[in-house]
Structure formats: structure tokens, C-alpha cells
């Protein structure tokens, strides 16, 4: 994976981020979701690098081979604001003051927070398979609670760690051929680490507490994304089925929004890398 990319562990303050970076040209950061690592982008990153981009692919704090502070009672160590601060510090340490930004799944919330808090650092942002956390919570239905029950299960203290730890492979599943053997092996290494599992669960606990509060404060203050936003969602996932057109929702949160569905299941970077890279480049090349 990532042939020609450098691999480093970069101290960003509270955490050390494991990061792959390569290519030349304007920088773009790719942020993964749960329970993936940066390796989920192994089919997309080379396509972007080939088209004249410097591509930076970190493991988010607590995920994969990145570290995280010990859990706190308020879960603030796993907040999207803390994770966004890591990414901003990483890019500055790599010499990039302004960059394009892509987030998928949980990584989308980090990308959203970074673009919201630091628009001066983000040229354009693409958010994949997400709407704001508070918009999810405002739309809770039996269907959402059934399909997305893990949001609320992961928020419980201690029990999820014990359940997942009993058999991580059975809990998370996955197909090495579909994911790519090295990507699958890297994710398997991560989910077999109790420290990583705890950190990933803390991400969800923060989501329903401190991250929700941050978004509620944004909404109360009528804050909106100032940078151009591309919203992409997987046609064979359930986001649109549960919530309708994501663009309608995001227009309440951003000044300049566009987007469309991609023919893929949820893990679009692994399942439809060419279509995803094409959509990102068309957006970023403007």
C-alpha cells in the first residue's frame, strides 16, 4: 500500500499521529472513519497523488497506530475539536498552512469541525456519508435507532469494550479481498488492541456529549461553513433513505454546498475509488 509515500509518527501535542504522506502539489488531507485506519484510502491516495496533489493520510487520534490521551469524564479528549486540532497541527508541522480536506464517516465530523473552526486553513472540504450529529439526533425514528443502534450502544460505559473485546473479528467482520489484504490486516491489528477499542468508543461518547454541544452552539449562533462544501454519499448505504436528500440538510450549515450520490456501499474509498477520486478532483481543481 501507498508505494512511494513516507510514513512518520508526528507529535502534535496531546497525541502522536501515524501518518502517510506523498505526492507533490497542493495538499489534501484524507480522514478515515470507524473502525478503519488511514489505510482505508490506499486505493484513492495514489490516484490523487498522480493528479498533482500532496496527499496526507493520518490515523485519527486513538485509531490505528496513533495515540490518544487517557479517557476523561467529559470525553473531551475524544472530541472532534481535539481531533481537528491534531490535524491542523500535523499539517503545520508538515509545512502546509492551507489545504483541502476530505472526511468519511467519523472522519467527516473531524473535517467539519476543522473547517468550521479554522476556515483560514481549509480551501475546500468534502464530507462523505454524514450529516451533522445534531441533525441525526433531531431525526431519531425507530428505523434510525434500529439501523444505527451502535451510536447509543457505544456510548454506554464499559459494556461495549467487553462485548467487542470478546471477539473483535466477529464484531467487525470484513472481507480481506474487498478491503485489500494489507488494509484488512492493519484494521485487524487495531481492533485487537484494547486501547484502540476504548479510544474508538470514546469517539462516540464524545459525539453524543461534547460534540453535540459544540454543534448546538454553532446552530444557536447561526455559524455556517464559510468554505465550499462537497457532500457525497453512498447510494447503497442508508443515509438518504433515512434522512432524505443530504444536500437539503447541509444547506442549513454551509454557504456553498453541492454534491451527489456515488454507486457504492458505505466504505466508498475501498469500493469505488476511481469514482470518488474523480469527484474530489473535479471539486478541488476549480
UniProtKB/TrEMBL annotation:
Gene3D superfamilies: alpha/beta hydrolase (3.40.50.1820). The keyword Hydrolase applies. Residues 26-242 form the AB hydrolase-1 domain. The keyword Secreted does not apply. It holds the Pfam family Abhydrolase_1. Keywords: Hydrolase. InterPro entries: AB_hydrolase_1, AB_hydrolase_fold, Epox_hydrolase-like. GO terms for molecular function: hydrolase activity. This is Alpha/beta hydrolase.
